[in-house]
């Protein structure tokens, strides 16, 4: 059998190894393997400048960035946050750890993002925040979501884990709500294996975010010379990634545009070559609204039924092509059922989750490999 075609893998240049060795082998007086070293500062400076972000703090994962966000919102028992069920568990776990409860809202039919038209009817006196998730690197309707949040005095935490370098109305995702979350997991467009970032757009959270991230101390102020010693001032934990990981990430971030261009090229090839099947009603292609600029994180197709999806997925797998489903709706998980949800509560979430199939997409995917995927799908519908 030919080499399997995987779903995703990081794009590597020669610089990842070069920068890692620089960090590893720096002269002893300049060697810094722990968090917030030279490469961490380079990453945050690059992100803040490129994305026009107020303040970026690297974290060990997007999950930990979400943990920080939940702590910054001072959530507690009885509080509620509005979130789509079409999501990964991290997006709700961080809020549940504070004692807050997720209130699940159905998704839009076009982008599979949270349906902003259903948010207000789910707001109660206990609601504290809205958590929009930018699925596949395509923005939610942030104009409407921010307007709702303002009217009801709620915070907005953008889960932009999949959306680094994507935009909405020419603003970068993650910089539009009060707080934003990025992921640099190996499955994402830009990766250091495991990593994330918290984007602080509401300045009221800046000082406390640094403290929570640094084990509840004002250590960051000390290193800036703002205090002559640092001490324990709040709750917190260790959310700093090693500067060795930041060295790898910096090489990735230097190629933000190049990586995105390649992903866009492959994304458009899928669109063009599968368009006839879409026109014939065999499948549905992703939707990118005119006011959204995607980062082309995921290319998926929607099949007519779950059975057709599973049959195609299994046939592709037998040919060495890893195409997979995505989220199992959180409201139908064992935890979701404990919260009182049941099948039928969120119709579109349940329907599209069962019909969605993700196709291989990563910069090193060759056009020859992609053509194999496309031909296999076309052949499936000719049988």
What radius of gyration results from the CA coordinates? 21 Å
Number of distinct helices: 13
> On the 0-100 scale, what is the average pLDDT?
97
Strand content: 5-15%
Strand order of the largest sheet: 1-9-8-5-4-2-3
How is the biggest beta sheet arranged? Answer: 7 strands, mixed
Order of helices and strands: HHEHEHEEHEEEEEHHHHEEEHHHEH
Shape: globular
CATH class of the largest domain: Alpha Beta
Query: Helical content, roughly?
Result: 25-40%
Number of strands: 13
Total domains: 2
- The termini sit apart by 22 Å
Ranges where pLDDT stays below 50 over 5 or more residues in a row are none
- At the fold tier of CATH, the topology name of the largest domain is Aspartate Aminotransferase, domain 2
- CATH architecture annotation of the largest domain: 3-Layer(aba) Sandwich
Structural class: alpha/beta
CATH superfamily heading of the largest domain? Type I PLP-dependent aspartate aminotransferase-like (Major domain)
Account of the protein in words:
- The chain has 383 residues and is α/β, with parallel strands linked by helices.
- It folds into two domains: 15-253, 3-Layer(aba) Sandwich (Aspartate Aminotransferase, domain 2), CATH 3.40.640.10; 256-382, Aspartate Aminotransferase, domain 1 (Alpha-Beta Complex).
- The protein has 13 helices and 13 strands.
- The strands form three sheets. It has a seven-stranded mixed β-sheet with strand order 1-9-8-5-4-2-3, with helices on both faces. It has a three-stranded antiparallel β-sheet with strand order 7-6-11, with no helix packed on it. Strands 10-12-13 form a three-stranded antiparallel β-sheet.
- A hairpin with a 2-residue loop joins strand 6 and strand 7 (171-172).
- The chain is globular, with a radius of gyration of 21 Å.
């Amino acid at each position: 059998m030919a080499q399997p075609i995987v779903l995703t893998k990081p794009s590597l240049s020669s610089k990842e190894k070069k920068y890692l060795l620089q960090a590893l082998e720096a002269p002893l007086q300049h060697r810094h393997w722990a968090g917030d070293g030279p490469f961490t500062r380079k990453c945050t400076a690059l992100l803040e400048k490129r994305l026009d972000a107020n303040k970026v703090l690297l974290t060990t994962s997007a999950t930990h960035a979400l943990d920080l966000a939940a702590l910054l919102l001072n959530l507690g028992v009885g509080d509620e946050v509005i979130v789509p069920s079409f999501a990964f568990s991290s997006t709700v776990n961080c809020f549940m750890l504070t004692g807050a409860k997720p209130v699940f809202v159905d998704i839009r039919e076009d982008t599979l993002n949270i349906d902003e038209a259903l948010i207000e009817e789910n707001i109660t006196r206990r609601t504290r925040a809205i958590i929009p998730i930018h699925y596949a690197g395509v923005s939610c309707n942030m104009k409407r979501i921010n307007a709702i949040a303002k009217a009801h005095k709620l915070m907005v935490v953008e889960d932009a884990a999949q959306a680094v370098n994507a935009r909405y109305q020419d603003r970068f995702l993650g910089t539009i709500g009060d707080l934003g979350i990025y992921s640099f997991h190996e499955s994402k467009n830009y990766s250091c294996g495991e990593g994330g970032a918290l984007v602080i757009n509401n300045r009221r959270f800046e000082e406390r975010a640094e403290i929570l991230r640094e084990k509840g101390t004002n250590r960051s102020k000390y290193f800036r010379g703002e205090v002559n010693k640092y001490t324990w001032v709040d709750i917190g934990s260790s959310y700093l990634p090693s500067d060795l990981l930041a060295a790898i990430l910096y090489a990735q971030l230097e190629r933000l545009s190049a990586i995105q261009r390649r992903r866009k090229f492959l994304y458009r090839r899928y669109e063009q070559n599968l368009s006839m099947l879409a026109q014939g009603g065999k499948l549905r292609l992703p939707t990118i609204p005119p006011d959204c600029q995607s980062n082309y994180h995921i290319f998926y197709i929607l099949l007519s039924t779950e059975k057709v999806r599973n049959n195609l997925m299994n046939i592709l797998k037998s040919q060495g092509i890893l195409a997979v489903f995505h989220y199992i709706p959180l409201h139908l998980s064992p935890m979701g059922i404990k919260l009182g949800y049941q099948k039928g509560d969120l119709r579109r979430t349940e329907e599209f989750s069962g019909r969605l199939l993700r196709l291989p997409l990563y910069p090193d995917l060759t056009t020859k490999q992609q053509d194999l995927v496309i031909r296999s799908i076309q052949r499936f519908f000719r049988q």
